What we know:
The structure is a homodimer. Helices cover 47% and strands 14% of the residues of chain A. Chain A has one domain: Orthogonal Bundle (Arc Repressor Mutant, subunit A). By secondary structure, chain A is of the alpha+beta class. In chain A, a hairpin with a 5-residue loop joins strand 3 and strand 4 (81-86). The first copy, chain A, has a three-stranded antiparallel β-sheet with strand order 2-4-3. Chain A has helices at residues 28-34, 42-46, 54-66, 88-91, 94-121; strands at 21-23, 40-41, 70-75, 81-86. Chain A contains five helices and four strands. The interface between A and B is medium-sized, with 28 and 28 residues. Chain A binds a DNA duplex through helix 3.
Amino acid sequence: MRKPLDPDMFDPVCPSELVPIRVGDKWAGLIIQCLEGGPRRFSELRIPLRTVTPKVLTASLRSLERDGFVLRTALPGPVRHVEYRLTPLGRSLLPLLATARAWAETHLDELLTAREAADRAR
Amino acid sequence: MRKPLDPDMFDPVCPSELVPIRVGDKWAGLIIQCLEGGPRRFSELRIPLRTVTPKVLTASLRSLERDGFVLRTALPGPVRHVEYRLTPLGRSLLPLLATARAWAETHLDELLTAREAADRAR
DNA sequence: CGGCATCCCATAGGATACTG
DNA sequence: CAGTATCCTATGGGATGCCG
């Protein structure tokens, strides 16, 4: 049984781009949280990540793999099947990502308000 | 009495660039931690931040100000004097930055080891 | 299915020099 | 002192199309 992913995180209405906290590159944080519930395949990752292109997703996964956050496993068989899973090191980032999410939930609108006011003032 | 800053944070031997956690732009996290101990002037910030150029420091401070993390105050008087201080919103990032630092202290060498191994394998 | 090859562009950020 | 002004480049990331 796989843990469902928080839908808000990928909601274009609340783009993570506005959150001034990033883990790795643009997609790494989301990827790691996608993998929290267990291994995922390449195309499974593309679904919640909607707008990510294969090239960029590959690059991000390779980077995560290189730094020991993610383990890539190509399963044998007639059909091609590749799995990505978190390593313990990758899992060590989960509390941080949860904290970042919590920060965003309680403070992001303050940021937005301040930005709006600053932009209106000039 | 101003709280001394952690020297390791700015040590080129442990460049924060390797830490896959960023708050805002390249310098924002360091700036915020520089301001933790109280208001600082422009040129005071340049000292721990050693390699930052004035242009980039200005840009980062403007961005932090725009988003309500930092308050800029130009004090009156014959000599020019500008102070930067954290707002409550800016302070709300401090626990996050502390967590990031803690992560780096306990896991950064794992990352480095994994990266080294991955680079040697290819 | 799980990518890679190619092209392209915007932006971040650094170097250097100058100023009110 | 606290910035601006210019210029320059690296790279992150997107678009598109092809492949075993």
